[in-house]
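Lab notes, practical 5.
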Amino acid sequence: MPLHLHRADRADALADGVGALLAVPQADPFAAEVVAVPAKGVERWLAQRLAGRLGVSGHGDGVAANIAFPSPQALVADVLAAAGAIDPAEDPWAGERVVWSLLRVIDGAAGQDWAAVLDRHLGLPGGGHRQGRRYATAARLAALFDSYGAQRPQLLRDWAAGADTDGAGGPVPPDLSWQPRLFRLLREAVGTQAPAERLGATCARLRAEPGLTDLPSRLSLFGVTRLPEDQRAVLAALAAHRDVHLWATHPSPAMWTALTPPPGAAAPGARARADDDSAASVTHPLLAGLGRDVREFQQRIQPVLDSDELLPAPPGPAAPTLLATVQAALRGDRAPAVVDPAVLADGTVQVHACHGPARQVEVLRDLLLHVFARDPLLQPRDVVVMCPDVEAFAPLVRAAFGQRGPGALDAPTEGEHPAHRLRVRLADRGRAVTNPLLAVVGELLELADGRVTVTQVLDLAASETVRRRCGFDDDALERLRGWAAESGARWGIGQRQREAFGLGDFPQNTLNGAVDRILLGVTADETADDWLDLVLPLDDVDSNDIDLAGRFAEFVDRLAVCLRDLRGPRPAAEWTTVLLRSLDLLTDVPVTQSWVRAEARREIVAATEHAGTVPLRLDDVAALLAARLGARAGRANFRTGELTVCTLVPMRSVPHRVVVLLGLDDEVFPRAGGADGDDLTARTPLVGERDPRSEDRQLLLDAVLAAGDQLIVLYTGADPVTGAPRPPAVPVAELLDVLAAHAGPGGRGACHTRHPLQSFDRRNFD
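Output from the prediction step:
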């Protein structure tokens, strides 16, 4: 059976195509449909589109049922597991299991000549604080080996066979010669073949025995933006007996035609990225500068395709707009042409230069209010705001848009900013932000590795779950801050914390000293100013403060116990016990939010579930939890009716009427950092292999095509302190060049606005 490719420049056209396909029943009417979606959060939008497409009444009130939406990675993993008779839950190469195995191998290799590079990185022998890199190093190398298996499986097959090659016909560079040896030791410790070694035999079994997996006779991959070598091999094997459909966004049919080899031409083999000259075959500057990912995807997928279909584009606006003109030039791969000045000033494409992130959010707030006021039919769900780092902008968005509770659609109160009535929802945030108990765990690990300043301790006491546990309200916290200042508390709970800094003989200005002064202030006479031993009672404490002083003393004692236990090294399983005990001592949640505690316990237990008796230091635990609790793309908080602020990842810009790109600053977009020095594939990358910077450039191109009515781009164009001009990120500069070409010599800068530092600047009122 064939492997089909369906392509369109917008995801809504792809969704309509999927709906038309699902409307054709399979041979088995009870068989579940499988539609793999690469980006979390898109399946809700796709299900809504399919429900409307399959609605029997013609009013979009249909139901899309019996459809599974796994990720392509999960789909391929399940297929490989079924064909290889290895349960993914038990595969020693899956998930974090291999990290702990690799950690044991790294510990065992310490001091050996071939591992000198690792020893220097870890601070061995006679290491100091750098040994805290153990877990982070093991996790990074495990991810690197996993990337090798997905992008270039031949590399690991050669290493397993004893050949130290780069998987593309060349030798391993001398400075990375330790990696093949480390992989072979890891393979020996795991005791089974790596997934890359099993890939060839598994695909052969899938072709010979299609019943090995219970997938239906038809399956689809929606919104494919990249196809690693292992996924391509598995899909080609499945297509031998199943109807496999790939639904991919492609910006330009003209570019597809230009890059398609002539009939009868031999399929190109693996080629180095440096030898790829496909950019010279396209005309539009954005396709040449931002479209490398999609060009390489085409070159990788075309040799295994049996059919290719161009889906019809959705109807455009009745009147020409600048956005529609830019999109039409991209589809036709034409050089930008000068447009009418009225079209240029229609506001459908806007680029705004601001003084720093905070000013960007202020400008965004005003722009959105203008957009909603101009179009009464526009709803918050029709707007998506994407930024490279959602955690950096989340507090700024909360501050600028406010957090009105129930009744947000009511008339504004006197003096309230109109933006406070907008329904804004932040997505893709880390668990350490969304779960207050996990946030406390992060703060405790930071305290245990630092000086334990009084500011940190009081901030911990002010956190939601701790203040509930200790009974602190706003007045009590303000009172405690005053006591801390008057008692002279600075850092360290007691002498124990100061021993690590060589100051164990100086108990002055510690939290214990402050507690002693507060408690003596409760019992001493107000007129007494005598010392008791080495402690002077605090004056500003009266009889009404007895309860608060006692609760504060108990809090400090509990915190001291927690920090005393957060010391290593200790076995990984003991760290779980210590962290859970710390949460029990310091935090509390209402019964209605018991899920918060359940989630926190689940995350802490899962972090060391497969660690066994591996000893970990405090730095290792901090790195482990930071990796698990950091910001990541999620499924929640999408298509809920609110205006969504999310991170910039593939398929996030599924068609919205208004697409906003926030924070496209030069230092963060494309994402910073050069090639990883330990990544062998980055030395001589092949066509189709992953490149984060190319991904980010492709995301900008996808966002331009996904915008229905308006595209708004904001970046830092001036230093917020000195006012010195700052250049836009290179992809944004390329977009500005295209807009300038559409504007012509006399209209350059018509779509580019430079804002003053302050919102109340007189230029804003001209």
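Observations recorded by the TA: The CA atoms of residues 465 and 589 lie 6 Å apart. The radius of gyration is 30 Å.
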